[in-house]
Amino acid sequence: MATSTTKQGKAAPALVEAVVVLRPLAGDSLPSPAQSKKMASAVLHSATEKTGLQPASSSIFENLHSFSVRASTEFIDALARCKEVAQVLPNDAAAPELIAPVRKRPATL
């Protein structure tokens, strides 16, 4: 990952993409989409308050009780420490490498 520089000449932190899965409500009941959206917004706000940083982007998936975020590792770590968060999964799906052919030959169609 490449880092960029800020106006002050400091290296800007590399951004990480992750999917954050929220914990179910008490009694393992599934929340409504509105409750999921409210909880995700609260977790993002809490991480912002703790770190003083903002995510570069985020998308809330109300029906899946989760959200995606693109932010610095410090911000992602703050999200992971929130009691409402069950899992933080990296979203770095690199393209799988193809297997090199043993020998080249024309394909007959």
Quick synopsis:
This protein has helices at residues 33-51, 73-80, and strands spanning 15-22, 57-61, 66-72, 85-90.
Structure description:
- The chain is of the alpha+beta class.
- The protein has a domain of 76 residues: THUMP domain-like (Alpha-Beta Plaits).
- 25% of the residues lie in helices and 24% in strands.
- It is built from two helices and four strands, in the order βαββαβ.
- Strands 2-3-1-4 form a four-stranded antiparallel sheet.
- A hairpin with a 4-residue loop joins strand 2 and strand 3.
- Helix 1 crosses helix 2.
- The protein is flat and about 60 Å long.
**Whole-Å distance between the termini?**
42 Å
CATH hierarchy: architecture of the domain at 15-90:
2-Layer Sandwich
Number of strands: 4
Write down the secondary-structure element order. Answer: EHEEHE
Which stretches are low in confidence, meaning pLDDT under 50 for 5 or more residues running? 1-6
The name CATH uses for the topology of the domain at 15-90 is Alpha-Beta Plaits
The level of helicity is: 10-25%
Portion of residues in beta strands equals 15-25%
Radius of gyration: 19 Å
Mean pLDDT: 85
Largest beta sheet: what is the strand line-up? 2-3-1-4
Overall geometry comes to flat
Task: Let me know the CATH homologous superfamily of the domain at 15-90.
Answer: THUMP domain-like
Quaternary state reads single chain
The CATH class name of the domain at 15-90 reads Alpha Beta
How many helix segments? 2
**What is the SS-derived class?**
alpha+beta
Sheet having the most strands: 4 strands, antiparallel
